Amino acid sequence: MQGAARPYAALKIDELAAEFIGARNYGDVKRLKALDDELTRRKSRRARALSAHVSLALASAAKRAA
Question: Rounded to two decimals, what is the model's pTM?
């Protein structure tokens, strides 16, 4: 069950970054939210930096949807 709740838990930060690029390019808000959820659980400097990028992409997507 945990794998279903955290689909990105097993991925390394480089893989998460690649997922982010794909999700951002396709405007996939569901994937961005899942990435955001995973990155909030990680504490490394790179994870926090990527989390900031994901948050900005989500804010941008919300602005476009409004």
Answer: 0.88
